[in-house]
Structures are given as C-alpha cells and as structure tokens.
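Retry 2 of 3 after timeout on previous attempt. Resubmitting structure tokens to design endpoint.
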C-alpha cells in the first residue's frame, strides 16, 4: 500500500496531537487545495511504512 487518507474534523488539532506523540510530519501546517480542502502528510517512518494523508473537507 502506498498511502492511506483519513478524513479529520480539525486538521490542525490532529497535527498537534501527532507531533506531541512524536510522529514525524511531512507538513507541519496544512496545505489548501483550490476548493478549500485542507491536507497534510505524516511520514511513513511514523506509520509503519505507509504514507498517511490527513484530509479536512470544507463545509461546502
């Protein structure tokens, strides 16, 4: 498996929690797609070899 995407309600809170637990983040802050969706990646070294993508959908 190359990567897994997980939808989160609050991406900034999720990134803070992961960083506090020692996870290696690729993106310290979320990136934003043109449609407003926000995303960030966690390094595979912290997730058993699978790239983890966090995804926060917009309300629209």
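Retry 2 succeeded. Sequence:
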């Amino acid at each position: 498996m190359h990567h897994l995407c997980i939808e989160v309600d609050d991406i900034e809170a999720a990134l803070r929690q992961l960083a506090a637990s020692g996870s290696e983040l690729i993106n310290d802050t979320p990136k934003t797609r043109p449609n407003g969706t926000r995303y960030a990646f966690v390094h595979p070294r912290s997730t058993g070899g699978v790239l983890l993508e966090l995804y926060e959908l917009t309300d629209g």
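Attempt log closed. The longest helix spans residues 11-20.
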